[in-house]
Structures are given as C-alpha cells and as structure tokens.
Automatic annotation (TrEMBL):
GO terms for molecular function: rRNA binding; structural constituent of ribosome. Part of the 50S ribosomal subunit. Forms a cluster with proteins L14 and L19. The keyword RNA-binding applies. Signal peptide: none annotated. One of the primary rRNA binding proteins, it binds directly near the 3'-end of the 23S rRNA, where it nucleates assembly of the 50S subunit. Transmembrane segments: none annotated. This is Large ribosomal subunit protein uL3. Belongs to the universal ribosomal protein uL3 family. GO terms for cellular component: ribonucleoprotein complex; ribosome. The gene is rplC. PROSITE patterns: RIBOSOMAL_L3. PANTHER family: 50S RIBOSOMAL PROTEIN L3, LARGE RIBOSOMAL SUBUNIT PROTEIN UL3C.
Amino acid sequence: MSGLIGKKIGMTSIFDENGKNMPCTVIEVGPCVVTQVRTKEVDGYEALQLGFDDKKTATKAAEGHAKKAGTVAKRKVAEFQGFEEELKLGDTITVEHFAEGEFVDVAGTSKGKGFQGVVKRHGFGGVGQATHGQHNRLRAPGSIGAASYPARVFKGMKMAGQMGNEKVKVQNLRVLKVVAEKNLLVVKGCVPGHKNAYLTIQK
C-alpha cells in the first residue's frame, strides 16, 4: 500500500467531540522525496523508493543515487506501492497524503529490552508459592519437556532470552489530526519504537 516515512515525536492525549480523553502518538511525517522509480521492465515490479531526513555525511554511492533525484542523501529509505497519482523522480510527497479519519498501519523497530526472563518476556505466572520451603524458584519457567521420551526440548519452547528490538507493525490506527504546516500526523494509540525512531506509515 502507499505510504510515507516518519519519525516518532512522542505521545500525548487529546479530547474528542464527546469529551473523551484519547491517548495518541505524534509522528513527524515527510516531506519524502522520490529517490527511485521501480518499473516492471527494469525491476520486475512497480514501486516508489522514498527518502526521508537528510544525511550530514554519506558514501559516494548514496550521494550519487540521491543526485539523480536532485536531492541529498537520506538517512532512511523505504519502498512503497499503490500510489494513485503519477509520481516521477525527485517529486516530494507531504503529510497531506493522509486525511483525518482514515486508518493507517505503522511499522517500526520496538524498544530493545535486553535479556529478559519468562515472566516479563512471555507473561508466565512463575512457579509455585513463595513459601513452603521453596528457595529460589519464584520466577522460573518450570518444566520445559518430558523425561526419557522424547529426551529433548522441542524447538520454539518459550524461554528467557533477548526481548524487543524487532520489527513490529500496529494496524488500523485512526488518524486524528493532520497538521500540514508542521508535517505532523496524530494517530490514536501507540506505535513501536523510542522517540525519534523511524517509522513507515501505510494506508
């Protein structure tokens, strides 16, 4: 689907017409420059490569790629399909691509939580009671398999490990406001990532 690249500014809350307080996320969206046009003849599919946020220093290859579009190298580049309007190399797309009231999907990289146990990572209840002689098993995973048969632990067993820092997509977030003069998009609810994290927003 068509979309744009943005940057997470932070969260706030606004009141709707009924006086209900709604949590929402403010995203700086665009302006995005078309840095490459994919065609069926050359690439085998049709898409637009968009660039967002100027890079201070870049490789010669990145500078040359951006120069073809008449712009500077970008920090974040992503491809989108399904644009209704005809766009060519060097065109700029702003936050006005979105309208208030429509629904969007927002994808980004979630916050990294480091190595976490099963209670935090998978929502386990912990084992047993805090008393009756138990010593150090309060947040342990418990049994992870049978004994002599099958004599192994199955793949995919929920265990402690690295949590977060993975691609997450949140779907069907309603656009509450479009502030065109400041390139801001306000969506209902929360989106993945820390402040200033890059996001892709799709219709």
